[in-house]
């Protein structure tokens, strides 16, 4: 039986991701709260998809492909435990375990060329207003440091696409 020549051949064997996961009971090591994981990004990796991207952030590796359009399914909204407690310690680029243990979270979306905040999404008990202001400042600094990496990724993808286009 002939193989499907349009598909990328995957490995003959694969390992479950749990094999490489860290033990959840381990206490996270103390770290600098403004540290970003090393990031590598590449856009347009898969030719079969309308759009694709590959991203490495520390030990996390993600390959995304877009094909569509189609209607998005309704998402579920959830909430975590909330209560009064000590002021949160804001971390830039938290790990999954740090995010699960956090009393509050904040996502910042920035348009770096215009230096304008495009969106803020906060949840949980963040304490005083000054604490949330510190979190926004930290998020904006992270966005500004990540911007050149993503900009370079998109420029390279545009050059590859332009070079591959027929005259």
UniProtKB/TrEMBL annotation:
<feature type="region of interest" description="Disordered">
    <location>
        <begin position="68"/>
        <end position="87"/>
    </location>
</feature>
<feature type="region of interest" description="Disordered">
    <location>
        <begin position="1"/>
        <end position="32"/>
    </location>
</feature>
<dbReference type="GO" id="GO:0004527">
    <property type="term" value="F:exonuclease activity"/>
</dbReference>
<keyword id="KW-0269">Exonuclease</keyword>
<dbReference type="GO" id="GO:0034475">
    <property type="term" value="P:U4 snRNA 3'-end processing"/>
</dbReference>
<dbReference type="InterPro" id="IPR036345">
    <property type="entry name" value="ExoRNase_PH_dom2_sf"/>
</dbReference>
<dbReference type="InterPro" id="IPR050080">
    <property type="entry name" value="RNase_PH"/>
</dbReference>
<dbReference type="InterPro" id="IPR001247">
    <property type="entry name" value="ExoRNase_PH_dom1"/>
</dbReference>
<dbReference type="GO" id="GO:0005730">
    <property type="term" value="C:nucleolus"/>
</dbReference>
<keyword id="KW-0271">Exosome</keyword>
<dbReference type="GO" id="GO:0003723">
    <property type="term" value="F:RNA binding"/>
</dbReference>
<dbReference type="GO" id="GO:0006364">
    <property type="term" value="P:rRNA processing"/>
</dbReference>
<dbReference type="GO" id="GO:0016075">
    <property type="term" value="P:rRNA catabolic process"/>
</dbReference>
<dbReference type="GO" id="GO:0071051">
    <property type="term" value="P:poly(A)-dependent snoRNA 3'-end processing"/>
</dbReference>
<keyword id="KW-0540">Nuclease</keyword>
<dbReference type="InterPro" id="IPR020568">
    <property type="entry name" value="Ribosomal_Su5_D2-typ_SF"/>
</dbReference>
<keyword id="KW-0963">Cytoplasm</keyword>
<dbReference type="GO" id="GO:0000176">
    <property type="term" value="C:nuclear exosome (RNase complex)"/>
</dbReference>
<keyword id="KW-0694">RNA-binding</keyword>
<protein>
    <submittedName>
        <fullName>Exosome complex exonuclease MTR3</fullName>
    </submittedName>
</protein>
<dbReference type="Pfam" id="PF01138">
    <property type="entry name" value="RNase_PH"/>
</dbReference>
<keyword id="KW-0378">Hydrolase</keyword>
<keyword id="KW-0698">rRNA processing</keyword>
<keyword id="KW-0539">Nucleus</keyword>
<dbReference type="InterPro" id="IPR027408">
    <property type="entry name" value="PNPase/RNase_PH_dom_sf"/>
</dbReference>
<feature type="domain" description="Exoribonuclease phosphorolytic">
    <location>
        <begin position="36"/>
        <end position="74"/>
    </location>
</feature>
<dbReference type="GO" id="GO:0000177">
    <property type="term" value="C:cytoplasmic exosome (RNase complex)"/>
</dbReference>
<comment type="similarity">
    <text>Belongs to the RNase PH family.</text>
</comment>
<dbReference type="GO" id="GO:0071028">
    <property type="term" value="P:nuclear mRNA surveillance"/>
</dbReference>
